[in-house]
Design a protein that fits this description.
The strands form nine sheets. The protein has a 22-stranded antiparallel β-barrel. It has a five-stranded mixed sheet with strand order 3-8-9-6-7. It has a three-stranded antiparallel sheet with strand order 16-42-41. It has a single domain, classed as Maltoporin, Chain A (Beta Barrel). The longest helix is centred in the first third of the chain and has 6 residues. Strand 31 and strand 32 form a beta hairpin. It contains four helices and 43 strands. With about 750 residues, it is mostly beta strands.
Amino acid sequence: MKTRLTGYTLLSVVGLTGVCNVGWADSPTPRSGSSFSVLEEIVVTSQKRTESLQEVPVSVTAISGDELVARQIRTAEDLVMGVPNLQVVSPLGEGMPVFSLRGISMSDYSLNQNGPVAVYYDEVYKGNWAIQGIGMFDLERVEVLKGPQGTLYGRNTTGGAVNLIARKPTGEPGGYLSLGYGNYNHYMADGAYEAVLTDSLGLRLAFTYDDADGHMKSKYPGVPDLNDTKQYGVRATLRYQPSDVVDVVLGAFISGQKPTGRSISAIPGPTGVGGPIYNELGLSGNFRDNLNRREFRSQLDTYREFKNHALFAKADFQLNDALTLTSITSWDKGEIDFNEDSDGTELILGDASYFGETKQITQDLRLTSDFSGPLDFIVGVYYSVEDLENRTDLLFAADVDLNEDGVIDAQDCLDNFFIVCGFGNSFDQKKTSYAFYSDVTYELTERLIVRGGLRYTHDKGKVTDFSAHLKGPDGTPLLNIIPGNYDFPLDATTKRDFRDDNVSGKIGLDYTLTEDIMVYANYSKGYRAAAFNSQAFFSPDELNVAEPEEVDAFEVGFKSELFDRRLRLNGAAFMYFYDNQQVLDVDGLTSVQLLVNLPESEILGAELDVKLQVTNNLVLSGGVGYLDSEIKKGISNGVDVSGNKLQAAPEWSFSGAIDWTVDLWGGWSADARLDASYRSKYHYDLANTEAATEDGYTVLNSQVRFYPVDESYGVTLWVKNLTDTFYSPAKYDVLSGFGYIYRQVNAPRTYGVSLDFRF
């Protein structure tokens, strides 16, 4: 089966819902001879070709820009509403998501790490949180690819990829503007405008803006509420098409966020927050008296600031009827600066500040064939370099006059090591990667296609100017801990490096049973490069390097459209053998933290996506995911975790939606939508402790949009977390050392109204 959509301009995706006009998707049209509308074709570029989703023999969830609007998906964290077996953990707060896909995730949330699930903006890899910025606006679609990636993508990953594809100039002038207001004084605005500058040159400008009060209420005078929203993003895209064989896209992007701190609501232990430390000093712990779970009382005025700038250029050159050369070049710069009170009380028990600045340059060059014969291929080369600067400072029990001399200063720390002290480290890191990749398809028959690919990757990294210090409660450096021996000069530094070479790849078959049913099977091997431990504060041994991760992934699946294209049913089953997962290991006695490798884990799972056009005005859709993860061998925090579940890997995940269009009076219509998302119980640590376990929960979202017959404007009423479900986006057990369970809380019920215009 070689039905391939051609053309060298990106094709926009019409609404996944088929009938939901939010975002002004075209309404579906009945097939000739049918009284029912049919499901719209979904067009993706997940395999670097413009193809129908139903012809792609891999597990992909695609969400159109119109669907994103209909679901009120404004952040990466919201994507779980529509993707089975996708979990998002936000240990560092909104805007810094850690994706877990089919159980593949990470436990080290340091600012220098790159996750096993890659994030791409317009095919540009965004490895570090500092350069991801605000991307969820004016999108053509989002594609979530499941399983190891490498033979088609510039950067290799073990877990999968989340691709954000922005709208590009299409040669049609016009735009839209949306203005909204919600509870918590939430002001929001989104818009875009396309101008046709010449017959071959178009410009698209887009922006987003959000400002809202915090939902975590402060009970300390003068300290603002937490988890507010203050962010903006602006994107400019220039497209030059002087002929049918040249397509050049240039883009520039800037975004910023400056909210208050995360919504931290500690759960006190038996002796109160800080009890294990403060009780030893004759003081009591803090039991958060008279505070509910959405209130805190801290004297620290926390903040979080993110800045991001990006430039990219993509050029497609059709060399002849069968070959296209594509070049993608990017430059990114981002900065993260925030501090937090990790216990959310008046105690200065665990205050921390973090700073990271990242610069990245990438170049991807590939050649794509479109032969008339049975063979087609993609071959490419990729290069990236990432430079970052990182600083972290921690304070422990820095509010105790330990020596009772009337002041809290460095002497309190020196009189009792580790108590009333601070610790800090700083370093520079540089990672360089280059790769050669290939992907080949061959039609054995009209129905049977074999696919394969190989990738060679060379990664190298180095950490320089690394130092860690014992500090007084005022931040004054007292002793050099790393490089070590405590008698080093305060300005002494050290370094580490690594080099890795890897060959990975995939092979698979897909077979077209009928015009509407395709089955496939494939094997792929994923690889994630080595990593430095940036959580090195207490011992020279902590500055170590974790070995690369590897995943052997087996998958079988099917794609189908039945009942005259009114039912879309896609499914997959998979088996992963996960080796050397990089995890942070903490010694409970010495607090020494090492980045180590978990030797073996296995993941068995399945997914099913369904979409049904019930009537011309009613569409039902849903997806279910199943995961059975098991650690086969490994030690975490001094505990044998063999037999335990992987973290952020719920056994069951479900999402569903009802879309209903109602004809009103005077030519007006209404689109109503109800979304549901469910996650069963899952764990935030490999030890599967009860304190770091999140029970299952369901989240409902809903909205209704009213619009006239020409759809030139509309009014939308929306609500998120309709039932005010409470859950924790992050939760960790620090009872033994600090006397509490670290817990973040999700956003409560939010609602509002928006007015949109199309011109």
